[in-house]
Structures are given as C-alpha cells and as structure tokens.
Amino acid sequence: MSDTGQQSKTTVNKRILIVDDDVYNRDFYKELLSDAGFVIETAANGEECLQRLQSDPPYDLILLDIVMPVKDGMQTLKELQHQSYRAKHGPIYMLSALGQDTVLDNAKQLGSDGFIVKTDITPDQLLGKIKSILHIQ
Questions:
Q1: Nearest 5 degrees, angle CA 77-CA 12-CA 67?
Q2: Interhelix angle for 123-133 vs 23-35, to 10°?
Q3: How many Å apart are CA 110 and CA 74, to the nearest integer?
Q4: Where in the chain does DSSP place strands (E)?
Q5: 39 part of a folded domain
Q6: Of 2 and 117, which is predicted with more confidence?
Q7: Strand partners, 17
Q8: Where residue 99 falls among pLDDT bands split at 50, 70, 90?
Q9: What's the structural domain count of the chain?
Q10: Domain that holds residue 34
Q11: Which of 13, 20, 24, 106 is the most buried (most CB within 10 A)?
Q12: Radius of gyration for the chain, computed over Cα atoms and rounded to the nearest angstrom
C-alpha cells in the first residue's frame, strides 16, 4: 500500500486477447482484467482475431465469443486447427452466453480448451477462473 492508502496496480505480465463483437463486453472485460494487471488486447470478430494471432506477440490466453459477424468463434476455432497457432499462443476459452451441451461439445471438438458461460459467472469469479487457467495465485 502507498502512503495514500491505495493499493498499487500490479502487472501480471500475461497477455490476453478478448474477442467479442459487443463493444460493451469488450470494454468491460478489458477494464476488469487490466485493473487486475493483465495486458489486454481486443478484437471485434474472428477475422480480427486471426490477424492479431499472426502479427502480435504471443498471447497467454484467448477469450473467444461464439456469435459474431464476419467470422464467428466456431469458424475461428476451425481455422486455428489448420495453423501453427498452438506452438505460439496459450489456451482458447470460449466466453459466450451460449451454454447448451451441443455448443460446448462442438467447441471442444474444434479445439477449445474450455468454456465460460457469461451469464453464469460474476466478475470476481471470472477473474478467479482466468487466474486459475494461467496458474496465478
């Protein structure tokens, strides 16, 4: 704590890419995770995600929405199966309001490492889940 009683912001040095077409969701998750010390980048659809994954430094985690224009999350996962993505970047977790078993199974078959249902998790739980995925205490 500093002399003013405010806790200083700690940098975690973990890079996360948030892919969501909803600007409110992107901004909310970016603020939540940035405030926790993560380095955050965003993309509005799967096409932007693929471009970032090809040109940006490695990401430790990708949070990928499913329902998006241009290229949705499932199409993006399918394309990532055919690229050298896994050698460079960390896990992909679907972050979606869709939580049906068929959707979860399809995402897993396409290479998703996990699934977070937006409507079933509080901001604190999401932060805890991400810290657990990235092995941060």
A1: 25
A2: 60
A3: 7
A4: 15-19, 39-43, 61-64, 92-96, 114-117
A5: yes
A6: 117
A7: 41, 62
A8: low
A9: 1
A10: 15-130
A11: 20
A12: 15
Q: Are 83 and 136 in contact (CB under 8 A)?
A: no
Distance CA 91, CA 96 (A): 16
Measured CA to CA, the distance from residue 83 to residue 54 in angstroms comes to 10
Q: How far is CA 8 from CA 5, 13, 39, in A?
A: 9, 15, 16
Amino acid making up residue 9: K
Residue 96: inside a domain: yes
State both tokens at 9.
């912001």
Report the amino acid identity of residue 57.
P
pLDDT tens figures, 8-67: 456 678 999 999 999 999 999 999 999 999 999 999 999 999 999 988 788 999 999 988
- 20 within a domain of the structure (yes/no): yes
With a CB cutoff of 8 Å and minimum separation 6, the contacts of 73 are 19, 46, 64, 65, 66, 67, 94, 96, 107
Dist. CA 58–CA 52, nearest whole Å: 9
Residues 6+ apart with CB under 8 A from 136: 12, 14
Establish if 36 belongs to a structural domain. Answer: yes
Question: Residue 45 belongs to a domain with what CATH number?
Answer: 3.40.50.2300
Predicted structure pTM score:
0.87
